[in-house]
Amino acid sequence: MYSMYTGEGNPYTLSNIQSFNGNQQLNFWNSSDCNRVHGSDGASFNPYIKKGDTLWFFNDQLCRALPMVYDRSITQEGLPGLRFIPREDVFMSEKSYPENSCFAGPNRETGDGVFDVTVCQFDTPIVLSWPHFLNAEEKYSNAVEGLKPDPEKHGFWFDIQDVTGTTLSAKARIQINMNVKKLKNFSHLSSINDTVIPILWFEEGIDQLGTDLINVLKQAATDPLQWRQYILYVLIGLLSTLTLLSLVAVAKVLANRASVAKVERVREQVENIIHGQIAANESSAQLTQPMLGYLDSSESSRSSTATHSRTSSEGMTPPYAVITAEQRDLTPFSDSDKPSVNFSNPEV
């Protein structure tokens, strides 16, 4: 009986076996790591699986946990998944992989591609391998006629939905062999060589999930990703629009600043022109006013000089006519209205 984690508090422990028949350790092998009960039973795995992860498949008939690694990506009815296969060191000898020395022992079959489980199968000389001695040493396949190993027909793999950890399809293929030794005292075995003889190979697993289950898994695995893509596209569109509007606003601000600067330059030019005209008018007025004063003082001087000459001449007739300012400003007379001028009498 398996006790499994529910994933409460840590979703990465979901579907992992906690113990087998109440034991967290087996007692068949040479180290605690090889005896450790852990991994999944194959029905499902932990969620959020990545390509670089190593998944563990535990089976009590195999008497161990098998490490599995990413092989390739798959799709089942539009639902993406990852295919995991046993790591290359599974069923390999300690000579090729020293880490497997914990599975070695006296009187056990050692060689690449086979796994002796005699100690956990009631001392029955049972040796496991992949069907048709797939990936095993040639000495095993050459000892038996009719074997044609094919990875597609005889391989071991799990197709897993990486977000939910659900097994989409699986092919668990194992070959059961018997380790037959030459026995001189037994007539039927006295003339044979030591041989690992295949007895049978079997396959367990599922081909694919039903359409209803696939649709449910899509809602959990692919639909959120699609909605996230849509939201991302909308955000990109909004950011692009805001960026474009910001650029337009900046361009308008720069244009307005240029226009304001141009208006300021025109205003300054107009003010300079107006100030120049005002300054010119003031200068002209300052020049005109002294001239008028000079003319007025000249008129007064001539008038006073004429009067002084008239009073001091003691009856002498001046050689010119004297016209007062009032007479000069009057409207000109007609010929009949013109007053006569008597040059002989200076009082007129």
Features:
8-stranded antiparallel β-sheet; 34% helix
Describe the 3D structure:
The chain has 348 residues and is an alpha+beta fold. Helix content is 34%, strand content 20%. The chain has helices at residues 32-35, 138-142, 151-154, 211-221, 223-312, 325-329, and strands at 2-4, 17-20, 55-59, 64-76, 79-86, 114-116, 126-129, 157-160, 167-180, 195-206. Strands 3, 4, 5, 6, 7, 8, 9 and 10 form an 8-stranded antiparallel sheet that branches. Strands 1-2 form a two-stranded antiparallel sheet. Strand 3 (55-59) and strand 4 form a beta hairpin. The model is unreliable at 303-317 and 340-348 (pLDDT under 50).
Draw up the topology in text:
Elements: E1 2-4, E2 17-20, H1 32-35, E3 55-59, E4 64-76, E5 79-86, E6 114-116, E7 126-129, H2 138-142, H3 151-154, E8 157-160, E9 167-180, E10 195-206, H4 211-221, H5 223-312, H6 325-329
Antiparallel strand pairs: 1-2, 3-4, 4-5, 5-8, 6-7, 7-9, 8-9, 9-10
Q: Number of helical segments?
A: 6
Amount of beta strand = 15-25%
Backbone CA Rg? 60 Å
Characterize the main sheet.
8 strands, antiparallel
Query: How many E-type strands?
Result: 10
Structure class: alpha+beta
Query: In sequence order, what are the helices and strands, one letter per element?
Result: EEHEEEEEHHEEEHHH
